[in-house]
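Example 3.
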Amino acid sequence: MSVQVDDAEILSKFQDEKTRNEAFNLLLKKYQQKLYWHIRRMVIDHDDADDLIQDTFVKVWKNLPGFRNDAQLYTWMYRIATNECITFLNKKKQKNNIPLDDVSYELADTLADSSYFNGDQAQLKLQQAILTLPEKQRLVFNMKYYDDMKYEEMSDVLGTSVGALKASFHLAVKKIEAFLLSRD
Amino acid sequence: MTSDSENREWLNDYMSLKQVNPNNPFIVPVGYFEGLEQQIIASVKLEELKKNNAPAHGFSVPKNYFEELSDNINARIKIEEALNTEAPGFTVPENYFEELANNIQARINVEEALDKEATGFAIPEGYFDNLQQQIQSRVFVEEALDIHADSFAVPHEYFNQLTEDILNKTTRQQESEKHNVGVVRRLFSSTAMKYATAACLTLAVGGTILLTRNSDNSAADQHNQSFLHKSLSAIPIGDIQNYLKMNVDATDTRTLIDESKQVNADNLSNDLQDELDTTSQ
């Protein structure tokens, strides 16, 4: 089991050109899976998630020299990944000329057909319930339910107030509960 | 994934959700994360190269390559289309036969539908009910336009006069300048001159032909006009042939030819009559 390196140390190494590549490798090892799963839960399809995780880290590489330490490094990268997901879903919507809700139906179909989903029926139903949520609520729910993020961290990522996030989350949970109960 | 119990207390209020297995149901291909790091690093390096060496990335192209590229591509496409269309025999569009049955059926349906409606011309529903109103609206609009047009009125017959004024100041002025320079007239009508010339030439040529014809008679014509021909033409040919058979042989031919040159044409008839009388005795 590899030892997780402190974010400050990674940033410090990154500033030095000689150790920049090493720092980036450390960053990858530490955060690539967390960010991947965050993206994957949003876009469902593995191949799409693969593209987006690479895009995310390329952007991290390009913009890390300008990182001002005014937020946590992980929160900053998480925001980049979230924006990549939102951009991707918007492009999908525009490409197919369909409303965002129908993108969710498309994602649900992808989920049903996916060979990279081995959850039980209850988990499948939960994913389908999540896909009925608006995009922002889906993000909030995933960040809270799967990543156990604090509201303050979510506020940094999404640029929304803590109060609004709490309200959004509880609304999301109610909808999911109703979905799960209605399909029993 | 470790769960923070304090953060998940809210699940107690949602039993259906709590019953769902919280483990991650998504999976990835085998070895995915092991290779992801390398993949990301490679992507980053490519981005760096793109940033540093854009746009040529060290490669060069011939002069004017990109300016001519689209023309070259279009030419190539046309050539390949031409080559593809040289197929031996008739071709049909892709999936033609697969769709043919449907197309025919659709066409039949359309024509059957048209046949049902074919009893007369159709008009939209409520057409005549709205027609009067539409006409009135149109009239109002056009009257309104006419009223507005008056705000930009012009004098009576303005545009007709305008054309004349412009012409007077332009082309007609140029023409009058031309007239002041002077008129060049031909001395002779060109048509009459042509006919006169043709007549003179004809006379000259005809006269020349006639004059040269008289002096240019052929040997046959000369003989026909000779005294000998005129004298002998009265005697039947049979008599001449019998005389020659009886009195002339091959050896006499040369003598006769020589002597014929010495014939006195003026006294020839008397000499011939004497000769005939002598030989017939």
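Chain B has a mean pLDDT of 72. Chain B has 13 helices and no strands.
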